[in-house]
């Protein structure tokens, strides 16, 4: 069964540095998402991406964050000037269509981001 | 925006017992309700979902019920097994024109052998 893959599995970065988290969505999917999960808390939506542009974003997704689909397969999340509170598990997800139209989201294994 | 409340935060049962996890949502326009299972350190995995035109859906030992009037939905697991131990998240989507699921805070289910 095809899977969403994320790299790296764990990223350790000094506060103030920039990080890029990478995701390869399922190949025929059209909608891409980033979520984060602070340790022990619920999954929080960051951004969705469709047709090469952001379709929806949460209040968490401010100017510090950006997303890009640099080629036909990768979907990246860039976090600039990282802060301690950015430490979390970041999940990428993809879906073939809108989630409530029988097109559920498939999640990757996540990247654990640790800011020191 | 949508607000999803989930209870209980922790649920401990004996193997073979049933487990019920309840969620409420605030936006009456929400029309899609997925449930995810997340094992420790792993990805959330969709286990069952229900749409607002259906009151109940069942898949083997797992069932979900939806009460649109009361704006609540529940996950029922029968004949629980130790491998059911995980964190379960409910979510609601479709309200306010957004298809993005809003997640509940999760329920840690512990099944004792």
How would you explain this protein's 3D organization?
- The complex is a heterodimer of chains A (116) and B (113).
- Chain A has no helices and eleven strands.
- With 116 residues, chain A is mainly beta.
- By secondary structure, chain B is an all-beta fold.
- The model of chain B has no long low-confidence stretch (mean pLDDT 93).
- Chains A and B meet through strand 5 and strand 10 of A and strand 4, strand 5 and strand 10 of B.
Give the H and E element order of chain B.
EEEEEEEEEEE
Q: How would a textbook summarize the main sheet of chain A? A: 7 strands, mixed
Strand content of chain A: over 45%
The amount of beta strand of chain B, in percent, is over 45%
Which percent range fits the helix content of chain A? Answer: under 10%
Brief sketch in words of this structure:
The complex is a heterodimer of chains A (116) and B (113). Chain A is an all-beta fold.
Describe the SSE topology.
The complex is a heterodimer of chains A (116) and B (113).
Chain A: E1 5-7, E2 10-13, E3 19-24, E4 31-37, E5 44-50, E6 53-57, E7 65-68, E8 75-79, E9 88-95, E10 106-107, E11 111-115
Parallel strand pairs in A: 2-11
Antiparallel strand pairs in A: 1-3, 3-8, 4-5, 4-9, 5-6, 7-8, 9-10, 9-11
Chain B: E1 4-7, E2 10-14, E3 19-25, E4 32-38, E5 45-51, E6 56-59, E7 62-67, E8 72-77, E9 86-92, E10 102-103, E11 107-112
Parallel strand pairs in B: 2-11
Antiparallel strand pairs in B: 1-3, 3-8, 4-5, 4-9, 6-7, 7-8, 9-10, 9-11
List keywords for this structure.
heterodimer, A: 116 residues, mainly beta, 7-stranded mixed sheet, 4-stranded antiparallel sheet, globular, B: 113 residues, 6-stranded mixed sheet, 5-stranded antiparallel sheet, 54% strand
């Amino acid at each position: 069964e095809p899977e969403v893959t994320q790299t790296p599995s764990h990223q350790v970065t000094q506060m103030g540095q920039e990080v890029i988290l990478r995701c390869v969505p399922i190949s025929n999917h059209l909608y891409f998402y980033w979520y984060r999960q602070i340790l022990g808390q619920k999954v929080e939506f960051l951004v969705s991406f469709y047709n090469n542009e952001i379709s929806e974003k949460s209040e968490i997704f401010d100017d510090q964050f950006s997303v890009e689909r640099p080629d036909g397969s990768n979907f990246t999340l860039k976090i600039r000037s990282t802060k301690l509170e950015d430490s979390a598990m970041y999940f990428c997800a993809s879906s073939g269509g809108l989630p409530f139209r029988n097109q559920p989201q498939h999640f990757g294994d996540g990247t654990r981001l640790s800011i020191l | 925006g949508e607000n999803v409340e989930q209870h209980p935060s922790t649920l401990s049962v004996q193997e073979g017992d049933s487990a019920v996890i309840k969620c409420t949502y605030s936006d009456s326009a929400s029309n899609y309700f997925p449930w995810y299972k997340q094992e420790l350190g792993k990805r959330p995995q969709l286990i069952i979902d229900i749409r607002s035109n259906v009151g109940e859906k069942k898949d083997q030992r797992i069932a979900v019920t939806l009460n649109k009037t009361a704006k609540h939905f529940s996950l029922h697991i029968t004949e629980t097994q130790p491998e059911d131990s995980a964190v379960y998240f409910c979510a609601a989507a479709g309200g306010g024109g957004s298809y993005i699921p809003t997640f509940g805070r999760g329920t840690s289910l512990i099944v004792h052998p």
